[in-house]
Amino acid sequence: MSTTAAPFRALEEAEEILDEDIIDDDFIGVGSEVSHVKRYEVIRFLGEGGMGRVYQAYDPMLERDVALKVLKPEIPEGERRRFRREAIVGARFCYPSIVRIFDLGIWHDEETEWFTMEYLPGTDMAKVIARADERHQRLPWAAIADIFRQILAALHYCHECKIVHRDVKPANIFVTRDPNTRFMTTKLLDFGVALDLDGPTKTEVLCGDPNYMAPEQTRYGARVDPRADVYAAGMSLYEIVTGRLPFDELEDAPLDELLRAQRESTPLPPSFYLPPETAKGLTDGLDRVFERATAKDPAARYQSALEMQGALLAALSLA
Questions:
Q1: Do the beta carbons of residue 209 and residue 239 sit within 8 Å?
Q2: Do residues 150 and 282 share a domain?
Q3: Does one domain contain both 185 and 237?
């Protein structure tokens, strides 16, 4: 037998032993249930959203900090389903630029639902944009390139897993540091309204942030696919680059007006809001990327997040 074949033969022998069911009666058998009470020590309150409150907590079994997200009381069942979905869909993924989900459970009163995910010290891009605006600063082009390199790769991974995020926006793009290497890293958050392409793909309920929603996502009954995330990534790029929403003038307008704008209006190109000394090659490249990513017709957009990533990184390399 060759040395190359030896490991495979050993594996086959191990499988044969398992197939013969030669197992100690005292050992755990197939079909057995293993139960364990998970305990977390709450350290501090971090913040809250519409559905839940988030705490930094400590897992004494695995000796690590986690983020504990707890559903608020008296939340309607539809929102409860979204809360559970955020955990269940997120738990499918194993990708460095997607937040990891660890556990999902119900507290002792059988009403308080919670899940744990990796603890991320840092902040989301919506807060970064606001802080930069307060200081009259702009984000470095190299940082923007690194953020979108990671986020567009994460979206491509989601799409390969047949999941459409449907809520890509700066508030769901989180910048943190890897706890082991200390390198800056970017994470995609919140899969609460994600669409599973193995199920129905028609939009029965409008979901997502209207400031970033693709035209097809604003229509009841329309089919949504990964190109809706490409559109939202383009709208997010505009805001991160310019410090303002593409339809900033409609921020306080009725919802119908904003949704109509997503279907019918074209915002000024991002270059309009960039400093005049910005390199022309860079501004032209950004305008082209934004225009194609946010085309009203999905067929005219980048057909994948990876395609958008290549075009954007090429444009930003001219900075």
A1: no
A2: yes
A3: yes
In tens, the pLDDT along 142-194 reads 999 999 999 999 999 999 999 999 999 999 999 998 777 778 899 999 998 89
pTM above 0.90, yes or no: no
How many CB atoms neighbour CB 86 within 10 A? 24
Q: Tens digits of per-residue pLDDT, 225-245?
A: 999 999 999 999 999 999 999
Q: Where are the alpha helices (DSSP H) in the chain?
A: 6-19, 77-90, 125-134, 141-160, 227-242, 255-264, 280-293, 305-316
Mapped onto helix, strand or coil, the DSSP state of residue 143 is helix
One domain for residues 90 and 217: no
- Which residue is associated with the tokens 């994470």? 187
Active site residue 167: yes
- Report how far residue 305's alpha carbon sits from residue 148's, in angstroms, rounded to the nearest whole number: 10
Q: Choosing from 167, 190, 209, 229, which is the catalytic residue?
A: 167
Q: Is residue 258 part of a domain?
A: yes
Residues 192 and 132 in one domain: yes
